[in-house]
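Escalation from tier 1.

The customer reports that the assembly of two entities below gives different structure tokens on two consecutive runs. Tier 1 could not reproduce it. I'm attaching the input and our single run for tier 2 to review.
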Amino acid sequence: MTQPLARIRVFDLTNAGVGPIATELLAGLGADVIKVESPEGDVMRTMLPRQRGFPTAYTSHNFNKRAIVLDLKDTKDRQWAYRLLETCDIFVENFRPGVAKRLGVDYESVSKVNPRIIYISSSAWGDRGPMQYFAGVDPNLQAFSGFASINGPEDNGGEFHRGYGHIDATTASYISSAAIQALIEREQSGQGAHIVISMLGCALNLQITRLAEYFAGEAPTARGTAATFSAPNQAFQCQNHKWVAVTVETDAQWQALCETIRRPDLASDERYATNTGRVDNREELSATLTEIFASKPSIWWTKELTRLGVPNSLFLDFEILREHVQVAANDMMVVIDVPHQGPISTSGYPWRFSEFEVPVLPAPAPDQHTQEVLASLSPKESAETPAPETATVEA
Amino acid sequence: MSGSYTSLMLRHAGARVIKIEPPEGDYARRFAITMGSDSAVFFALNRGKESVVLDLTTESGRAALRRLLKTADVFVDDLGPDRAAALGLDHATLSQDNPRLIQASITPFGDHGPHRNRPGSELVVQAAADYPNSLGSLGEPPRRVGTDIGYINSAIFLYQAVLAAIFQRLSTGRGQRASVSMMGSLIYTRKTVWAAMGYPDTWIGAHTETYMTPPTYAYKTKDGAIYFSLRRGSEEQYFGLLDALGILEEALEDERFGDGGRAAVGLGPVAQAVKPLWERGLANLTSDEALALIQSFGAEGVPVNTHASVLASEQVAALDLLHTVEHPELGDVPTIRMPWRIDGEVPTLDGPAPALGAHTASVLSAAGYSAAEAHDLGRLAVAG
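Tier 1 run:
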């Protein structure tokens, strides 16, 4: 069977992290995603590091797409954009409020060209309120949404998650979900839709479990590796200095842990019989377990925990994961040969389906498909196919 | 937790959601931090659903579930591939009775491979998927991301997979199986890091250096903390800001503050190293004063919020992200709304989470069980 979005075309006018990952998800489900860049290009073209002179971040966010360049400030290019929009089902932009209107691609203009369009506006702070025009890089969202306040050791007031934007990626997955939901609704109604998504809303939804605890009167705090809602549920250091993550969420897992550590006295200790009891007495329990785990190497603990069914893991990193048997068996990481860059390490898509394959296809170079896409649009007198610009690759 | 959030999203989109629970109930009901009789987490993730108790260790319980699935559109499960097959709840079996059924399965570590039946958890999957390397320092005790990204991000991906299968079914008339793993989800969201670390020309940039970078904290002010960046200001404004903070002279002598401050704030490579000087400048200002000053020089900042302060913010109110629902024991309680507005409307979901088995009788009766049979299944379940 073909992929579910095989007849769906996406006009992707997004930049940086959020929007491009959102449309890359749609591309994985078969949509024809056309990445439309301004002549200056996606800001990702300036990111480091590079591979064969070209930024890996641009490639990472644009698998399975086609890439074209249109200058929406130019009247002729804007007409090309409208003709392309006539053939599209979904339009995604992540400008600050007001910019799309200046470029002639606000919802009102686009829906006039194509009334069935599903138009998605994604921004950091939404389309209203005192912060709507503020910048929206991921750390700002981590700070403002409370996300950072519960990371880190117990006493530091909150640590930022570094290395890449997790709230970016989360917002991306909400955007692509909203797009497919709107496609389903369009089949019934025949109508397009205007969807506005904020990173702030996504950051709060991502924290639904911690917010639930806050609403219940227990404001979550940073607590190292320990969980709020069950115990023991934290990392322990083993005799060989490696750390192992151990989780007990059910009474059966608690019994299995007691068997792992050969402590029947703990298994029958009434203070620890229920999750509530284990959480209420977590400090004492944690101290006991810390001492026990330090007495044998991690290879013993991971074997025993796994044998007895207690959720556990060592702390892994990229070097291990890229060779990991489970990662390979499920295509969680793949290496894709990108013509202008060579082999690129990336993630496989997060879903698998029984009726179709989910391929990861090379990301384009900027401007690679301008001529091809424009030539495919029905000819009109006034517009000529522009000559493709040379891809801007910053060395 | 993942499956519960996936079906909560379906409920937000208008689906009727019937939650099948074992006789002792979803173990998430017994998590710590309660809202009424059940955990706060259970309440948040299961609002608006119906609860039916079935004991899937018995043949009659499994038969009742299979009967319910004959008329279902979507079956969300976290049984694991081998257990689902052993219980006769795999898609190959279920689709014989209902070819339109979409089965959406969530696992910790994936459907295939030697770890496919291994149990997981939020912490365990974060540890396995490299996340603690984005926090803390080498050689120090590991840290986790405080919120439940493994549970929630995988749930969003599973929701998306369900939607894709529903969309495809509109044209094919057939269901299918979709599956998502927590580990695969967290590996997907970290993709920028893999591309940077795979085969780069040089070892440079925030995506490659995350393992070695020291922990990133906000900037302390007189009464709290802020985070800011200089992306939009001019060089003149930058010097103006340094001057207003009383740190211009020292900054001019320090080349790390050069180039318009690009390296010295935000995600800049020396931002954490030069933070003490910024904090000296900010020490006499409240967060509000500091943010106003920073904004007046063309830069942008935000306060570092706790959950209390973000939820009290004007921006959250403007976006209408909070919604009050009635809890049967506690009266009005706040909840969070979906992050989107569709044609001007934010979806609203009323209703509390169901009591265990509250809908067993009504759902089974509607499925054709006599009142006595429904009663027996319920009683069996309660005894189970």
